[in-house]
């Protein structure tokens, strides 16, 4: 069969053998995410036609105005994951506490915890610009058969067994890794099937795009200011192009295909930046590393950080390897 005809469903089954002791649960889990992605895609696509644009009226645990689609996407993903006997706990950007999936005896045998950013870039919804979903999957560390605990969620990113994102863009794509490279699937909306369209995705070693919210320049640390000046200097391939969508998923996706760096640094007004370690930075960092890219907090590897809290934030430098290394050089300087 030609590669471009492979569906995501077929791909998941074909690659089950990557996990020698697999019982098929991880495959089932990715299948559930695939299903939720299609449902959310359907809702996002008709957002301008029905009353789901705008604010939901609540402030989430992050202090942000929750959008109606934040709530809807959160609900769809949680429901789809809870209805199957695979996941024992879920943490989400939109939920203050983690959710324990039914503690009846059978469900407690589930091995996996999932962390999600149900809708990333939600400030873009009202203006019809790309948004995304991010997911991160771990094997629980506490014994199967007992209720899930905070310890199961607070694992360093290097323990992730899989991670991925969905970008609801000009076309909808699901991109994921189980630690054996990164593959991208495009949804054919007419028949509701994802096809393998981007096998073995890799960041170019270097690139000429930098993505950072320069409106915050005045608040950035000196290292970031100097790196931005370096990007703008005329020399060789520089000045680089500046591209910032305001949705991590979309900015990351573009940079992985074209070559670039995404930066959300700490600043004088946000001591750890804005992005959340567990369901934004860790999954993107695993994908970046699996795609020959790099993810750092400016000084060290994102995937090595021991998390302390569910919603903790971390500075994020991610993208083409050489560009991230250059930015780190400026941070050290
Ligand atoms: P979310 O919509 O899930 O809260 O995430 C928003 C994040 C990220 O997607 C984006 O890159 C960043 O916030 C944009 O922040 P600024 O508007 O501060 O640049
Ligand atoms: Mn948010
Ligand atoms: Mn987000
Ligand atoms: Mn979000």
UniProtKB/TrEMBL annotation:
All residue ranges annotated as the Fructose-1-6-bisphosphatase class 1 C-terminal domain in the record: 204-331
Provide the protein's localization.
Cytoplasm
Please give the catalytic activity noted in the UniProt record.
beta-D-fructose 1,6-bisphosphate + H2O = beta-D-fructose 6-phosphate + phosphate
Name of the protein described by the UniProt record: Fructose-1,6-bisphosphatase class 1
UniProt feature coiled coil, ranges? none
Q: Where does substrate bind?
A: 120-123, 213, 244, 274
Q: Gene encoding this polypeptide?
A: fbp
The species is Cerina litoralis
Q: Where does Mg(2+) 2 bind?
A: 117, 120, 280
């Amino acid at each position: 069969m030609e590669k471009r005809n492979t569906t995501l469903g077929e791909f998941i089954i074909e690659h089950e053998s990557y996990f020698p002791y697999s019982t098929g649960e991880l495959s089932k889990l990715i299948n559930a995410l695939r299903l939720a992605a299609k449902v959310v895609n359907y809702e996002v696509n008709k957002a301008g036609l029905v009353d789901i644009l705008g604010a939901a009226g609540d402030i989430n645990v992050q202090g942000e105005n929750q959008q109606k689609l934040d709530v809807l996407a959160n609900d769809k993903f949680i429901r789809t994951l809870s209805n199957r006997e695979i996941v024992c706990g879920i943490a989400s950007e939109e939920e203050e506490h983690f959710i324990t999936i039914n503690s009846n005896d059978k469900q407690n045998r589930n091995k996996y915890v999932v962390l999600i950013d149900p809708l990333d870039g939600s400030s873009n919804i009202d203006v019809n610009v790309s948004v995304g979903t991010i997911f991160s999957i771990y094997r629980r560390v506490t014994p199967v058969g007992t209720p899930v605990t905070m310890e199961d969620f607070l694992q360093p990113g290097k323990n992730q067994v899989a991670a991925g994102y969905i970008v609801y863009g000009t076309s909808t794509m699901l991109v994921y890794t189980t630690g054996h490279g990164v593959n991208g699937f495009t949804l054919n909306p007419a028949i509701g099937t994802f096809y393998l369209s981007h096998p073995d995705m890799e960041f170019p070693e270097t690139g000429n795009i930098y993505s950072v919210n320069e409106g915050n320049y005045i608040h950035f640390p000196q290292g970031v200011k100097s790196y931005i000046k370096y990007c703008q200097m005329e020399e060789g391939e520089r000045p680089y192009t500046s591209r910032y969508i305001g949705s991590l998923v979309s900015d990351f996706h573009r940079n992985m295909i074209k070559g670039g760096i995404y930066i959300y640094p700490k600043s004088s007004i946000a001591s750890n930046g804005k992005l959340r370690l567990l369901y934004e930075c860790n999954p993107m960092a695993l994908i970046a590393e699996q795609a020959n890219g790099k993810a750092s907090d400016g000084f060290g590897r994102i995937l090595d950080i021991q998390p302390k809290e569910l919603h903790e934030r971390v500075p994020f430098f991610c993208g083409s390897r050489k560009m991230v290394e250059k930015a780190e050089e400026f941070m050290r300087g």
